[in-house]
Write a sequence for this structure.
């Protein structure tokens, strides 16, 4: 896989993956205490990466990364890393630092992540116009952050007082939901066409097929979390209806991505940082499935959420170990 610099934005995918294991674990019976330490790990890694980025990145470096058609896509990772850790601070870190401090941390990281995510949603797709590059699932990375903003913002809205501010927050989250959803609807058909006509490509690109689950799972999560902050009629119905339909397609994509991955693994699947694509997207499907289970108490949703979380933890342990001890 090409790189424009030794230290790229794709490193922030490790924070995304670790953070989603923590936030998804917050809703799993008996795992809240353990999830706090996983969140703390994600927060520590984020701090280290931000310090390293401040020391190594210059405007010239950033321009070089944006000029690389592969590395440019992973500029969606830093904003999602920020917001994932922020959400973890609210759901888990508040046990240690208190709710007021957790809200302050979450608001800060959510604001920074949302602004940066809106930038990546415009700058990176514009960079690809006229490039002649074939679409791959990594193209979704820069347009998923607004969906993460929508889901994370819904949790923040729950702590706002009733009134115009809360309504504006929820409406803004629905707008962010739309930014990411319709961008996804444009990109996924291109990804499918590339897969049919040209295959996955290099072995290091195989894990990126799982990225399609990111906007799907995160949109299910966002739609149902926003339903918990009623400011418009029909929010609950929309969350359940949209969530169930998207959930069905997400499970189909799990089967497709798994088949592609198994076939590639038989020929040899060398480790690359793209392996983190096995983690965060699956994590969003866990949170989305759990959000559906909250709205529609069902053994189906609850059971699938637990099974997916088991797969998520296994993937995280494997990828984290390979990242730490890769040769």
């Amino acid at each position: 896989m090409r790189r424009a610099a030794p230290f790229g934005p794709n490193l922030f995918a490790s924070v995304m993956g670790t953070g989603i294991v923590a936030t998804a674990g917050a809703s799993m019976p008996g795992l809240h205490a353990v999830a706090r330490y996983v969140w703390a790990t994600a927060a520590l890694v984020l701090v280290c990466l931000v310090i390293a980025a401040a020391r190594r990145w210059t405007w010239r470096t950033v321009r070089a990364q944006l000029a690389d058609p592969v590395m440019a896509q992973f500029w969606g990772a830093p904003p999602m890393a920020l917001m994932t850790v922020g959400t973890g601070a609210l759901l888990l870190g508040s046990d240690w630092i208190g709710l007021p401090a957790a809200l302050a941390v979450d608001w800060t990281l959510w604001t920074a992540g949302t602004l940066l995510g809106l930038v990546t949603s415009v700058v990176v797709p514009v960079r690809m116009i006229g490039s002649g590059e074939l679409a791959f699932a990594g193209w979704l990375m820069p347009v998923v952050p607004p969906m993460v903003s929508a889901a994370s913002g819904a949790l923040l809205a729950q702590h706002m007082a009733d009134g115009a501010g809360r309504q504006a927050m929820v409406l803004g989250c629905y707008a962010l939901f739309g930014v990411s959803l319709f961008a996804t609807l444009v990109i996924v058909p291109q990804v499918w066409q590339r897969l049919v006509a040209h295959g996955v490509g290099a072995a290091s690109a195989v894990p990126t097929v799982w990225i399609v689950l990111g906007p799907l799972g995160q949109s299910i999560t966002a739609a149902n979390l926003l339903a918990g902050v009623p400011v418009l009629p029909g929010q609950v119905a929309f969350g359940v209806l949209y969530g169930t339909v998207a959930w069905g397609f997400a499970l189909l994509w799990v089967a497709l991505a798994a088949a592609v991955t198994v076939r590639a693994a038989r020929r040899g699947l060398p480790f690359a940082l793209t392996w983190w694509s096995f983690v965060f997207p699956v994590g969003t499907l866990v949170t989305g499935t759990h959000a559906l289970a909250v709205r529609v108490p069902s053994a189906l949703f609850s059971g699938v959420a637990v099974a997916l979380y088991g797969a998520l933890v296994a993937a995280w342990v494997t990828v984290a170990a390979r990242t730490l001890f890769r040769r």
